[in-house]
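Box 3.1 A note on notation
Throughout this textbook, protein chains are presented in two layers. The first layer is the amino acid sequence; the second is a token string describing backbone geometry. Keep the layers aligned when reading.
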Amino acid sequence: MPSTFNTVKLFSGSGTIDLSEKIAKCYGKDLGKVILSRFSDGEFQPHYDESIRGCDVFIIQSTCQPNDNLVELLMLIDAAKRASAHYITAVIPYFGLARQDRKDKPRVAIGAKLVANLLVAAGIHRIMTMDLHAAQIQGFFDIPVDHLDASVIFVPYIKSLGLENLTIASPDMGGSYRARTFAKYFNAEVVICDKRRKRANEIESMSIIGDVTGQDIVLIDDIIDTAGTLSKAAGLIMEKGANSVRAVCTHAVLSGKAYETIENSALTELIVTNTIPLKHDSPKIRVLSTADLFSKAIANVNEHASISELFKI
């Protein structure tokens, strides 16, 4: 167990430096120093430039692409274990490969389970993450999992917009539970976009279940990747007579032509968090910080306080 009597040290992998610095500032500590040595062929070796013996170590790194981010996190965990850290928590704001949470066709890997096994084998005692693509991924771990909920960040922002005819929407059937959870905070109706895919990242058809006429629609999702689904949903919603349409997504993967797709879409605004650093700014994208929530969660873990208390809105 983490102890209030042990020194807490926060470290960052190279893929999440900006968010890690913000978390450390909110927590009231400086980030510990990590040096990343590189060989000419691209191989790298991270090492701690200070003693962590007997410390409660929190290693912050989203495992978004490239896969070097995951490998670096695993190496930092292994180095902390070998340096006699007392308790090691992996703080993974975005848990990569979470979309591979089940065997949905023959002869495929369950990537999320594989990553869970790797993290535990590397030596973590605890994991802290946010808005897993599938909540059951928590069951892939036999160690404590702190699953933070970004709704505590998004709901106040949506309320600040003062939308008179707010309706919450899910971009697919699988996200209906998430949409209904948001809708409870506003006593709002829920509509669902029913889509059929040809293959990953390619939609064959889409229809709207529910009435959007005259409504201000807020689409809710956990990940936005190519932005194809949300863009198509936004266009269809506006064609059906909505006043406006926005999207709220925790993890801004934004690959391929996603930025161009968003800027050319019917979306008034895309609201995301900083669990993944943006490749560049966009006039339609608003970023809300998760730093304060993560810093409070780290403090509560260290002080053996409740994590769920942080999610009261």
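The longest strand covers residues 189-199. The chain has two domains: 8-148+291-311, 151-288.
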